[in-house]
Amino acid sequence: MEKPKLADAPSNLAVIGRYILTATVFETLLDIKPGAGGELQLTDGLRGLLQREKMYAYAYAYVYEGCRHDTGDKLGFLKATVQFALKREDLGGEFREYLKNLKL
Q1: Which CA distances in Å does 42 have to 36, 74, 87?
Q2: Could you list the pLDDT tens digit for every one of the 104 residues in the chain?
Q3: Residue 27: which of 42, 44, 43, 45 has the closest Cα?
Q4: What are 64-68's contacts with CB under 8 Å, separation 24+?
Q5: Degrees (nearest 5) of the Cα angle 73, 83, 93?
Q6: Is 6 helix (H, G, I), strand (E, B) or coil?
């Protein structure tokens, strides 16, 4: 289920994946309509690709306990950038002081 509303989510788990696709996926993306959030969804394109050619999947599950940011979301990207910047030895201290001195 692609980006369900919290009330509709079948679980509290997420899939974070990487894909190796043939160029045919671009043809299928031309045929789909915007889905969740008004965006073209890769999962919809994959469904179309499956109608045109074979696909092979390798899945590995891991329950991750920690902080995760959705870098496909503008706010999530900013949060991840700040978190990683603060952890860097070469930038963390100066960046932390910069943030403390912001007039918010």
Answers
A1: 11, 18, 32
A2: 667 788 888 888 777 777 888 999 999 999 899 987 788 888 888 889 999 999 887 777 788 888 888 888 899 999 999 999 999 999 999 999 999 999 99
A3: 45
A4: 68/14, 68/16
A5: 145
A6: helix
Which long-range contacts (C-beta less than 8 Å, at least 24 apart) are formed by 17-22? 19/46, 21/46, 21/49, 22/49, 22/53
**Using an 8 Å Cβ cutoff, are 79 and 67 in contact?**
no
Q: Domain coordinates of the chain in residue numbers?
A: 1-65, 69-104
